[in-house]
Structures are given as C-alpha cells and as structure tokens.
Amino acid sequence: MESTSGNVAKSGTVNVRNGDLVPSLDLPSTSGRFVNLAAEAKQRHLVLFFYPGDTVGQRYEQLAGCTLEARAFRDAFCELQGLDVAVFGINLQTPERQRQFVDREHLPFELLSDSSKRLVALWGIPLWTSRSGEEYVSRVTIIVRKGGVVAEINEVDSVPEHISAVLAQSRSLRAPSTGE
Question: What's domain 2-13+45-174's architecture?
C-alpha cells in the first residue's frame, strides 16, 4: 500500500498480528538504558506507541499530532500504571533527540529509538518518506499482554480518540486471555 499526500508518501502494511510474541529486542531509551521488549513484557503489560517525531508535524501536516499523543499518554500514565501497564513511545529519532522531547513535555515514560528500523521491519510498521528521503514511522499503537503476546493493534487515525481506545483495551487486559 502506498499513499501520497503533499510532501510525504506512506508505504507498507502492519504485519504484526494479535497472538504474535513480542521480540526479544534491545532498543536504546531516553533513560540511557537498553530496553528488552520481551523482558519488559514478562513483568507487565506494554503499550508501545509508534509516532513520527516531536516536531515533524510542523513540516508535514499529515504527520501532526505527536505532541498531543505524547501528552495524552502522559496524562493517562497514572491510570495505565495502575493497570500494570508500562508505556513506551517509539520512533526513528536518536535517544538524544527524544530526550529533549521528554524534558520539554515532562513525559513520565521512556521513549525508545528504533533508528536501525529493526522493530519497524519485523512488525511491518508503515513508514512515511519525504521527497528529500527522510523517513518517519507511522502512528501505530500495539498493546502487549503480560507474558509477551500481542493483544491489540491500533492504526491511529484520530489522536484525540486514540487514548480512550488504549485505556479501554488496557482495562480489558485484566480479563483472562482468550487464547488469541
């Protein structure tokens, strides 16, 4: 699938499916540590939200909403923690660049850098590419059940409604797995 809109074009299709296992993959974080997704998922549920970048929407209107989305996760963080859910934002930017965003927006969760595109390729997260060749990950949120099984995949169309859906899906993680 490819769609072109102004100065950026989107390509790819989400390949991860409900029931897939989260990979044992180490990604650098804004805290300075490497986060192993499979190890994190052994301890608690995960919300992994992929987003283009902190100022990308200023250049490409189609990619706007990253700050609003990060703020929504920030504002819902205590509730998600109470549901035993860890939140991680993921994009292609460096941890140093992401750290500026964390500091500016007072984000209580870590951002993970997939600048090598290992997770993006493994899960088939679509990319937006500018005419000058810059790449940005599409807005997709994946919810992983404690134990490491993908429970929900959300391709985000509307940032304002997105956090409500993630909260509802996270609340449903309390229910026993249906063996998806």
Answer: 3-Layer(aba) Sandwich (3.40)
**Sheet (strand 8-11) strand order:** 2-5, 8-11, 127-130, 135-137
What pLDDT, in 10s, does the model give residues 61-99? 888 889 999 999 999 999 999 999 999 999 999 999 999
Residue 24's contacts (CB-CB under 8 Å, 6 or more residues apart) are: 36, 37, 38, 39
Q: Hey, what amino acid is at 174?
A: R
Tell me the whole-structure pTM to 2 decimals: 0.91
Beta-carbon contacts of 48 under 8 Å, excluding residues fewer than 6 positions away, are: 37, 88, 90, 141, 142, 143, 144
Spatial distance between the Cα atoms of 44 and 46, rounded to a whole number of angstroms:
6
Token look-up 């984000």 returns 107
